[in-house]
Amino acid sequence: MPNALAVVVIIALAVIDVGVARPPISNTNTLLRFVCGTNDAMSPATFSRNLNSTFSQLRSQLSNTGVYYAQTQNFENEDAVYGVAQCRNYLSSTQCLACFDVAVSTIEPACGSANGANVILDNCFLRFENYDGFYKDPQGSSDVDVPAICGNESTSEPITAFNQSVEKLLSDIRDATPRTSDFYIASTRQVGSASNATVYAIAQCVENASNTICKNCLNTAYNSLSGCLPADEGRAINVACFMRYSEFPFFQNNQTINLIPFLAKGSSSKCGMIIGVSSGAGLVLLLLALLLWFRHWSKSKAVGKDASELQGARCYSYQDLKVATNNFSEEYLIGKGGFGEVFKAVVDGGNIVAVKKLKQLYHHVGFRAKKEFENEVNLISNIRHRNLILQLGWCIDGPELLLVLEYMPQGSLDKFLWGEKKGTLNWKQRSEIIFGIARGLVHLHGEFYVKIIHRDIKSSNILLDSDFQPKIADFGLARFLPEDQTHVSTRFAGTMGYTAPEYATRGHLSEKVDTYSFGIVSLEVISGRSCSDVNDSGPRTEYLLDHAWELYEKGIPIKLIDEAIDPNEYQEEGVKKIIEIALMCTQSPASLRPTMSEVYIMLSSEPELEQRQLSRPTYIDVDRRIHIDGSIDDKMRLRETRRRRLNGRPSTVDNVVQELDCWFWAAGDILFNAVKMVVGKRSRMPALALVVIVLAVMEVAVAQPISNTTINTNKPIRSYCDSNDAMSLATFFSNLNSTFSQLRSQLSNTGVYYAEAQNLENGDAVYGVAQCRNYLSSTQCLACFDVAVSALEPACGSANGANVFLDNCFLRWVFLSLRFHLPLR
Q1: Is pLDDT at 136 greater than 90 in this prediction?
Q2: pLDDT in the model for residue 618
Q3: SS3 of 563, please?
Q4: What is the pLDDT of residue 660?
Q5: In 3-state terms, what secondary structure has residue 606?
Q6: Binding site annotation covers 676?
Q7: CA 36 to CA 745: how far, in whole Å?
Q8: Counting Cβ atoms within 10 Å, is residue 556 exposed (0-12), middle (13-18) or buried (19+)?
Q9: Where do runs of H (alpha helix) occur along 233-366?
Q10: Residue 606 in domain
Q11: Using CA of residue 215, residue 217, residue 220, residue 224, what is the dihedral sign?
Q12: Is there a domain that residue 603 lies in?
């Protein structure tokens, strides 16, 4: 019966398909523009060899499924050739290569030994030069016009309706294209409300262009094409962008991109069309969707099977790489990362590459593991994007596993933020770095057929090319880790200021882990400070994230910007928007964070963001005090640290009371152990009840009245840390972070002054209460709560209980719910 139903559906769709059939798709490689450079190469023979190598490498990159942009360079005897090629995204790989071959055959006989040329066709674009400046500024100062090529015939549709539809469609794709990660949009629009005619349009910028260049170029293209109307088709062409419309289809209907997410205010005409759809048309769309889903499902197996067989990386000889790095000598060492050392090498007669020697955990692996490593690298090498490091090859025939990577002459981003080149990046470079990192993550998370979560986005993993364009390194390397050596444990060796709390404490992995890290790196780029740097200038010690949130909540986020940046280089509203997006990425829980696609759209939109209330994270950053797999020695050091902090304070009345309080709780520990020995393990709850009652009486005896000071003074009056540490630190920190988050969420509601929460996981529980004075506003209450959390963080570490009294609020957490039933004085 299901098969019979499927046959009926397919027959119905076939009838519908015939009924709505359009003219055949036109994929002609029409030549639109062709320019040869005016200067000849100094050494034609050398230049010709470099040019042929460049063409070969560009073609090799474009031969990979889903790759529409290629960029490469070749040096020999200082005669360099830099090349880029780009196909329209509606083409198949075969069609893309066919267009590329036409472009090459057009250039080669006509330009001779010219040291530069570009050719633009309907379906692709090819350019080479003897300098790399056009990577950053493809237009330069002499090619800013975007001339239009108009069709010879007028539209056969009503002119007014046709003109309005075309102008609205071109306006929408002009605005949306710079907000996409690959600078490409294809869309259609119905001509009028009573017509069955459709207009087709695309817009594309060359991927090495900046957002500003893309916007300006497409705006000029839009103005040029407006002059073509009412012609039935038109093209606007430039080395930086391409825009085309036609009343004849030149791509498939299922190759369009939804514009609404990329338009700041949506599309009213689109909404009107959706509302006006009849029920019959809705049924047609439903049936078409079923067919498309079926086709996608049936093809997915083939894609999965062939993906690892795409043309990928090259297998290098260990001996060749050993010679190229002078036996991996120190003079060739250019960096050390979390996965191993990186060396500079010259291979294949002059190509500069980076060779990563993976750490000991990869050494001396068996044949099967090496084969899996080879397959994984070959798979990941097919990921090609302008903001991702290109993996060129691998080596498995030596004692160590090696990766051969694209070489980045400027090194890592951290050197330019707080290293030896601190303060040399201007605001334009910094903003483009933030945009580029976002673009790269969007590609990893959703545009490659295998979703890849980086897990370790940080400034030292962001490399810069000669034009200071960012490229993300080390993506996919976590896939190579042995099963007994997880990414979490290997990255917990030091400060993890970039790591999302849910991943650090519970190992919960999602793409929002990269979103969090992106937010931290963005704050570093803006401020020029490392996330682990401590700011001691204020009333309390603050890390970068704490400092950024405090400035944001005070309404002065602009003070975060690096003082080395010239104020004339930026607009304050634009900087504030990026800071707000970065903080949005660091919210907890992870569900509050945007996806990287949403981040990129927000970055590309106008400075004004939709007003939303951000939720400041209140978790404890465990890496600042103890590792998840901390030893008994770690716990003893924590106890000693707390003891010194208490003993080192001035001997005021409050501190005397606090010390008495600590002694009472220490006595409680002894009392509990004694009672447990008498009554046995089975009677633990009565024993705990007895201990808690005694301790409560002791607390009442030493409790001090809270002074009545001014409303805005969040002065700590008393704080206490339990003498015992949690048994399972990972579980405890997870519960504690969740408890803080829930307490703060409750207190954020107007008129709420008391909050109570509990979290249980794996038999470990954390119970918390918080209370504000009723004369406070919600903002003042939350401010006091944040001070309370920050007061307990550095002192109490992994203690399984603590409390702090302030003038305006109170916070306490314990591992026993029984204490909640006792009055707190």
Answers
A1: no
A2: 58
A3: coil
A4: 44
A5: coil
A6: no
A7: 64
A8: exposed
A9: 268-275, 279-306, 318-324
A10: no
A11: negative
A12: no
Give the pLDDT score at 221: 94
Mean pLDDT (whole number) for 107-113: 83
- CATH number of the domain enclosing 47: 3.30.430.20
Active site residues: 456
Q: How many residues does the chain have?
A: 825
Residue 591, helix vs strand vs coil: helix
Residues 475 and 570 in one domain: yes
- Across the range 338-361, mean pLDDT stands at 82
Q: Return the amino acid letter for 793.
A: E
* 773-802 CB burial, b ≥16 within 10 A, e <16: beebeeebbbbbbbbbbbbbbebbbbbbbb
**What is the 3-class SS of 778-790, one letter each residue?**
HHHHHHHHHHHHH
Between 19 and 51, residue with greater pLDDT: 51
* Helix or strand (DSSP H, E) at 36: strand 31-36
Please identify which residue in the block is written with the tokens 């190992």.
Answer: 507
Q: Is 83 helix (H, G, I), strand (E, B) or coil?
A: strand
Q: What is the mean pLDDT of residues 706-732?
A: 66
Q: What distance in Å separates the CA atoms of residue 785 and residue 613, rounded to the nearest whole number?
A: 17
**691/774 same-domain check:** no
Residue ranges making up the domain that contains 728: 618-648+705-825
Q: Are 106 and 122 in contact, with CB atoms under 8 Å apart? A: no
pLDDT digit string, tens, across residues 4-19? 444 444 444 444 443 3
Contacts 24+ apart (CB under 8 A), 491-495: 491/338, 491/455, 491/456, 492/623, 492/627, 492/628, 492/629, 493/627, 494/623, 495/532, 495/623, 495/624
Give the DSSP letter string of 206-263.
Answer: -TTS-HHHHHHHHHHHHHHHHTTTTBSEEEEE-SSEEEEEESS-SS-GGG----GGGS
Separation of alpha carbons 384 and 380, rounded Å = 9
Q: What are phi and psi of 532, to 5 degrees?
A: -95, -5
Reported as a single tens digit per residue, the pLDDT across 682-694 is 444 445 545 445 5
CA distance 759 to 579: 32
> How does the average pLDDT of the chain come out, rounded?
76
Of 598, 632, 658, the residue at which a domain comes to its end is 598
CA quadruple 350, 354, 360, 363: dihedral sign: negative
Q: Are 643 and 656 contained in the same domain?
A: no
Q: Which residues of 201-237 are buried (b: 16+ CB within 10 A; e: fewer)?
A: bbbbbbbbbbbebbbbbbbbbbebbbebbbbbbbbbb
Res 737 pLDDT > 60: yes
Q: Judging by DSSP bridges, how do beta strands 148-150 and 534-535 pair with one another?
A: unpaired
Same domain, 366 and 428: yes
Confidence of residue 539 (pLDDT cuts 50, 70, 90): low
Q: Is residue 732 very low, low, confident or very high in pLDDT (cuts 50, 70, 90)?
A: confident
Cα(770)–Cα(804) distance, integer angstroms: 10
Q: Choose one of 679, 698, 717: the last residue of a domain.
A: 698
636-680 tens-digit pLDDT: 334 444 443 333 333 333 344 444 444 444 454 445 445 444 444
Cβ pair 713, 807 in contact under 8 A: yes
* One domain for residues 540 and 663: no
CA atoms of 95 and 26, how far apart (whole Å): 12
Instruction: Compute the distance between CA of residue 391 and CA of residue 405 in angstroms, rounded to an integer.
Output: 5
Lowest mean pLDDT among 193-197, 405-409, 498-502: 193-197
Same domain, 767 and 626: yes
Q: Residue 604 falls within a domain, yes or no?
A: no
580 with 627, same domain: the answer is no
**444 and 517 Cβ atoms separated by less than 8 Å:** no
Instruction: Measure the CA–CA gap between 80 and 135, rounded to whole angstroms.
Output: 14
Domain total for the chain? 6
608 part of a folded domain: no
* 375 and 491 within one domain: yes
Whether the pLDDT of residue 268 is over 90: the answer is: no
Q: Give residue 820's identity as a one-letter amino acid code.
A: F
> If you search the block for the tokens 């940046």, which residue do you land on?
565
